[in-house]
Design brief:
The protein is α/β, with parallel strands linked by helices. The protein has two domains: about 300 residues, Zn peptidases (Aminopeptidase), CATH 3.40.630; about 160 residues, Alpha-Beta Plaits (2-Layer Sandwich), CATH 3.30.70.360. Helix content is about 35%, strand content about 20%. The strands form five sheets. Strands 1-2-6-3-7-18 form a six-stranded mixed β-sheet. It starts with a helix and ends with a helix.
């Protein structure tokens, strides 16, 4: 109960709009902005995909940056599993006074695959065009890596002594590889990254509508990532003798049932507060629907209308979608096997096995097997009991300075703790007992989210303002 009271009290204090007369943030540091852009470019142009890229190359490049900035070798570690030389992580420490336990900053260096033929520009070339920076990882999340690295280098050069050690871990395989760096560090070198709490740049940010800032989001919990595989098999045969029993048709029917299924509506303490704080600023049908959705029981028509928006739908439901297909072995033969990958983002509190069983029930076809895919691509008949954790009460060390800085840089917008509809390495740090918050000062438009997609980009001004924000924010977090 005390935790709940603390959460509610802090949430309402965070939501208060600071006076418009508040002093403005000090002028941007041009040298840090230039450094951040240089690091950003360097990282974009190092291919860190799982298939052919090297996170190690990026880690070593960052290690050199830190050494050149004056960090001693003992405070820079490049390390990772011996089984894969391409998946080493870099950990750097800026020593503080020791008044408080450390804060850990995390960011992944790996990126999703990208094919040149799919893009207007080369995905592994850093391109500035029409007010945007283009490149794979420009928004997920080499922009954040560059901002955090440049911030620590600036602090080191200034001789800043924080009240707590600041640890930065730039890691491998957040995007689905088999050598996840945060997980590996926690299991093998906890002493290097142990912290009181974690700031994750892979989430949050200033949500805008056609350039107009609406709110600053702070991911205080997240959904759980899970892959599942549907497999239909058949004896096959000659294509001149077609039969109704066809593994591709059976798989197609199963995928159609999944496409039409919606997981139950559900709010947790973070998402309920997220929507409650939107009500005062909402207008028209959305305002009415938010109020009706927040009632107990919720109005199903209001939930249905809100669910038409992809972000709201994903916030209120577990979601599963087909992402890959394969099938057949010859153009002139009936298919013996057809297979699909189903990617799910699961609400906190629900396990991977619970989700697998739901998919099996929805498919409702004994000819289609539903299995769980582990990170190493092993297919299992029983899913893991792993689940995303219910969020803890927000820490005042994070939200009080965030509220003040945001009010100065984006006057009038609320700071809203929310749930990430994706997934991040926060699932590992939260499970290890280190409360994790995704905080970013970069502005992004709700209708131009290109992470994992074609022509991924981030705004030039949004990035530069994000550089300014992070230095002021991190200094405020570690000042006392």
């Amino acid at each position: 109960m005390e935790s709940k009271k603390l959460w509610l009290g802090l949430l309402f204090s965070v939501m208060l709009v600071v006076s418009m007369q508040a002093q403005q943030i000090s002028p941007a540091d041009d040298a840090t902005r230039k450094l951040a852009v240089d690091i950003f470019k360097q990282l974009i142009e190092i291919n860190t995909t799982d298939s052919v890229g090297s996170v190690t190359a990026a880690s070593e490049a960052m290690a050199k940056r830190f050494r050149d900035a004056g960090f001693p070798d003992r405070d820079i570690q490049v390390l990772g599993p011996s089984s894969n030389d391409r998946k080493k992580n870099v950990v750097v420490r800026l020593h503080g006074s020791g008044k408080h336990k450390p804060v850990l900053l995390i960011g992944h260096l790996d990126v999703v695959e990208a094919r040149r033929e799919d893009w207007t520009t080369d995905p592994f070339q850093f391109i500035e065009k029409d007010g945007y920076y283009y490149g794979r990882g420009s928004s997920d999340m080499k922009d954040g890596d560059a901002i955090m690295a440049a911030t620590l280098i600036r602090m080191k050069k200034e001789g800043y002594v924080p009240s707590r050690d600041i640890i930065l871990a730039l890691t491998a395989d957040e995007e689905g590889g088999t050598s996840n760096g945060v997980d590996w560090l926690i299991k093998n070198h906890r002493e290097l990254i142990d912290a009181e709490f974690v700031l994750n740049h892979d989430g949050g940010g200033v949500l805008a509508d056609h350039g107009k800032p609406l709110m600053m989001e702070v991911d205080s919990t997240e959904k759980l990532y899970g892959d599942f595989v549907l497999t239909a098999t058949n004896p096959g045969g000659h294509s001149s003798l077609p039969r109704p029993e066809n593994s591709i048709y059976e798989l197609a029917d199963a995928l159609t049932r999944i496409a039409h299924y919606q997981f139950p509506f559900e709010l947790n303490n973070i998402t309920r507060a997220y929507y409650e704080r939107q009500v005062p600023a909402a207008t028209g049908q959305r305002a009415a629907d938010l109020k009706a959705m927040l009632k107990v029981p919720p109005d199903p028509d209001a939930v249905a209308r809100l669910s038409e928006d992809p972000i709201d739908n994903s916030t209120m439901h577990t979601t599963c979608v087909a992402t890959r297909l394969s099938g057949g072995h010859a153009n002139n033969a009936l298919p013996q096997t057809a297979q699909a990958n189903i990617n799910c983002r699961i609400l906190p509190g629900h396990t991977l096995e619970e989700t697998r069983l739901t998919l099996e029930k929805v498919v409702a076809d004994p000819r289609v097997k539903v299995q769980f895919r582990e990170n190493d691509n092993q297919l299992l008949d029983h899913g893991s009991n792993r689940h995303s954790y219910v969020p803890v009460a927000p820490r005042k060390e994070v939200f009080e300075p965030l509220d003040k800085v945001a009010a100065k840089m984006w006057p009038g917008i609320p700071v809203l703790p929310d749930m990430s509809t994706g997934a991040s390495d926060g699932v590992y740090t939260n499970a290890a007992g280190m409360p994790t918050y995704a905080v970013s000062g970069e502005q992004y438009d709700k209708d131009d989210i290109r992470a994992h997609g074609r022509d991924e980009r981030t705004g030039v001004e949004a990035f530069l303002r994000g550089v300014d924000f992070y230095y002021v924010f991190l200094k405020a977090v570690t000042a006392e």
